[in-house]
Automatic annotation (TrEMBL):
Residues 19-533 form the Cytochrome oxidase subunit I profile domain. This is Cytochrome c oxidase subunit 1. Residues 1-21 are annotated as: Disordered. It comes from Roseateles terrae. It is found in: Cell membrane; Membrane. Its EC number is 7.1.1.9. It catalyses: 4 Fe(II)-[cytochrome c] + O2 + 8 H(+)(in) = 4 Fe(III)-[cytochrome c] + 2 H2O + 4 H(+)(out). SUPFAM superfamilies: Cytochrome c oxidase subunit I-like. Belongs to the heme-copper respiratory oxidase family.
Length: 541
C-alpha cells in the first residue's frame, strides 16, 4: 500500500534550504548529505571493481594455456590475493553501503543518516586504505601473496606489503563499523511516524541485520590480523609452531569472521531483489514476515558454520558432523527466500524490464551457487574438492551472480530516482544478456576442472585441463568487456542526464516512500517526516 503523505512531494520546505547545498569540489569532499555520500561509495566501488577485474583478467590470461605465459608463480599469487581482497573489501561491500546511504533514508522517510559527519569520515577512510592495497604492488617484494584469506604461516613470510595490507584492512574495518552504527541508529530512531519495524521495506530490514553482523565480526578480523602483525614484528608466536603457536588457530579465527562476512555480502542483495520482484510481478511480496525471520535466521546460523571451510585440517569426526549439518541447516532459510520470490512471481502480471531481468537472473544463478554450496558442505566430498576450481566456481556463483547481479538490478531499478533520467532499455538488456552468457561461460567449466582435480591458485596446469581453461578465459574477457560497456553506455549517460526524463514513479507497481519524492531526488528530502497510514497492514513490498 502506498504511503499517505501530508504533502504530495514529501519535501515541503526544500526551496528554503537548497541554497545551503555546497557546490564544486566542496560538495563532495565535505559531503554530509546521504545521497552524495551514497554516490561517492558507488563510484569508489566501481573503480575498485575495475581494478579487481583487471587482476582477474591477468589471472585468466595466464591460465589461457598451460605453461607460464606472462607472469611468474609469485606474481600470479599476488594477483589472486589482491583480486580477492579488492573485490570483497573494495568493490562489493562499499557498493552495498552506497545503496544503504542512498536508499535507507528515502525508504524510511528520514531526512538523512543519523550521523552525517561520521558518514563522511567512514567514506574518506576508504581512500587511503584502497591506495595502500593497490600500492602494495609497488613495494619491495611486491604485493602480499598469501591468498585473500591471509593464512599463516605464509603471512609471516611476506615482505613489507603485508603490513600495508594489514593496516588497510584495519582502516576498512573501522569504516565498516562506523557505517553500520550509522545504519542501525538511522533505522531504529528515524523512521517516519507510523512505520513500525514490520512495515519497513525488505531492503531496510536486510541492511539492519547486516549492520549487526558487521559490528559483530569486523573486530574478529581485526584480532586475527593484529596477531599476525605481532607475530611478524613483536616476537609473539600465535601462529608460529616453532614458538608453540598454531597456524590452524588462525583459520578458526579468520573464518569465524569470514563466514558471516559471506552473508554480509549477500543479505543486502536479498533485500534489493525483494524490492524488485514484487514491483515487476505487480503483486505484494509473498510472506513478508517469513522473509524477515529467514534473514535473521541466516545471520544467526552464519556464526556456527565457520569450520566448513576447514574440513581438510584434520578436525575430529564429531566436529565435521556438527559443521556439516549446521551448514545444511542454513540452506533452509535461504530456500524460504527463493520460494517466496517464486511465489511472488507466481500468477503475477510480470514484465521483464532490465531490473527484473537481473532479479530473475540472480535467482536462477544464485540458486545454482547455493546447490554447489550444499555439495561442498558434505564433509567427505569437500575433502576431495577442497582448494580445487570447484570451490572457485561455487563462490563466484554466489558472489558474482549473487551480490554483483543484485547490485546491477538495483542500479537499473533506482538509477532513474538517483539521476532523473531513464537508462536505455536496449543497452540494459545487452548488458544483462552479455553478462549472463559470459559469466556462465567463465565459471561453469570450473566445476568440471575442480571435479577433475585442478587446484586453485596455480599458475600452471597439466594439458588435460587446457580446453576448459581456454573457454573460461574467453568468457572472463567477455564478462569484463560487458562491465566496461555498462559504465560507458549506461552509467555515464545517466550521470550526464542524457536520456528520457524519469517520472517520479517510473515503475507503476513499485511501492515505497522513495517513489513519493521527485526524480531526481532533491538534495533535501523529508524535512517534515511523511505521515504514514497506520491502518495499513504494510507500507511497502
Amino acid at each position: 500500500m502506498s504511503a499517505v503523505l501530508d504533502h504530495p512531494t514529501g519535501h515541503v520546505h526544500d526551496h528554503h534550504d537548497d541554497h545551503h547545498a555546497p557546490t564544486g569540489w566542496r560538495r563532495w569532499v565535505f559531503a554530509t548529505n546521504h545521497k552524495d555520500i551514497g554516490t561517492l561509495y558507488l563510484l569508489f566501488s566501481f573503480t575498485m571493481l575495475m581494478i579487481g577485474g583487471i587482476l582477474a583478467l591477468c589471472i585468466r590470461a595466464e591460465l589461457f594455456q598451460p605453461g607460464l605465459q606472462f607472469f611468474n608463480p609469485e606474481q600470479f599469487n599476488q594477483f589472486t590475493t589482491m583480486h580477492g581482497l579488492i573485490m570483497v573489501f573494495g568493490a562489493i561491500m562499499p557498493a552495498f553501503v552506497g545503496f544503504a546511504n542512498w536508499m535507507i533514508p528515502l525508504q524510511i522517510g528520514a531526512s538523512d543518516m543519523a550521523f552525517a559527519r561520521m558518514n563522511n569520515f567512514s567514506f574518506w577512510l576508504m581512500i587511503p586504505a584502497a591506495l595502500m592495497l593497490v600500492g602494495s604492488f609497488f613495494m619491495p617484494g611486491g604485493a602480499p601473496a598469501a591468498g585473500w584469506t591471509l593464512y599463516a604461516p605464509l603471512t609471516l613470510q611476506m615482505g613489507p606489503s603485508m603490513d600495508a595490507g594489514i593496516f588497510a584492512m584495519h582502516i576498512l574495518g573501522a569504516s565498516s563499523i562506523m557505517g553500520s552504527i550509522n545504519i542501525i541508529v538511522t533505522i531504529l530512531n528515524m523512521r517516519a511516524p507510523g512505520m513500525t519495524l514490520m512495515k519497513m521495506p525488505m531492503f531496510a530490514w536486510t541492511w539492519l541485520i547486516t549492520a549487526y553482523l558487521l559490528i559483530a565480526v569486523m573486530p574478529v578480523l581485526a584480532g586475527a590480523i593484529t596477531m599476525t602483525l605481532t607475530d611478524r614484528h613483536f616476537g609473539t608466536s600465535f601462529f608460529t609452531p616453532a614458538g608453540g603457536g598454531d597456524p590452524v588457530m588462525y583459520q578458526h579465527i579468520f573464518w569465524f569472521f569470514g563466514h558471516p562476512e559471506v552473508y554480509i555480502m549477500i543479505l543486502p542483495a536479498f533485500g534489493i531483489i525483494s524490492q524488485i520482484v514484487p514491483a515487476f510481478a505487480r503483486k505484494r511480496l509473498f510472506g513478508y514476515a517469513s522473509m524477515v525471520y529467514a534473514t535473521a535466521s541466516i545471520a544467526i546460523l552464519s556464526f556456527i558454520v565457520w569450520a566448513h571451510h576447514m574440513f581438510a585440517t584434520g578436525m575430529p569426526v564429531t566436529g565435521q558432523l556438527f559443521f556439516m549439518y549446521a551448514t545444511m541447516l542454513i540452506a533452509v532459510p535461504t530456500g524460504v527466500k527463493i520460494f517466496n520470490w517464486l511465489a511472488t512471481m507466481w500468477r503475477g502480471s510480470m514484465t521483464f524490464e532490465t531490473p527484473m531481468l537481473w532479479a530473475v537472473g540472480f535467482i536462477f544463478v544464485f540458486t545454482m551457487g547455493g546447490f554447489t554450496g550444499l555439495i561442498c558442505a558434505v564433509a567427505p566430498i569437500d575433502i576431495q574438492i577442497q582448494d580445487t576450481y570447484y570451490v572457485v566456481a561455487h563462490f563466484h556463483y554466489v558472489l558474482v551472480a549473487g551480490s554483483l547481479y543484485a547490485l546491477f538490478a538495483g542500479v537499473y531499478y533506482w538509477g532513474p530516482k538517483w539521476t532523473g533520467v531513464m537508462y536505455s532499455e536496449t543497452r540494459g538488456k545487452i548488458h544483462f544478456w552479455g553478462s549472463l552468457i559470459f559469466f556462465n561461460v567463465t565459471f561453469f567449466p570450473m566445476h568440471f576442472l575442480g571435479l577433475a582435480g585442478m587446484p586453485r591458485r596455480y599458475a600452471d596446469y597439466p594439458m588435460q585441463f587446457a580446453d576448459f581453461n581456454m573457454l573460461a578465459s574467453i568468457g572472463a574477457f567477455g564478462f569484463g568487456l560487458m562491465q566496461v560497456y555498462f559504465f560507458v553506455f549506461v552509467v555515464i549517460p545517466m550521470m550526464r542526464g542524457k536520456g528520457a526524463k524519469a517520472p517520479q514513479k517510473p515503475w507503476e507497481a513499485a511501492e515505497g516512500l522513495e517513489w513519493e519524492v521527485p526524480s531526481p531526488a532533491p538534495f533535501h528530502t523529508f524535512e517534515n517526516p511523511p505521515k504514514l497510514d497506520v491502518t495499513a497492514t504494510r507500507v511497502v513490498g
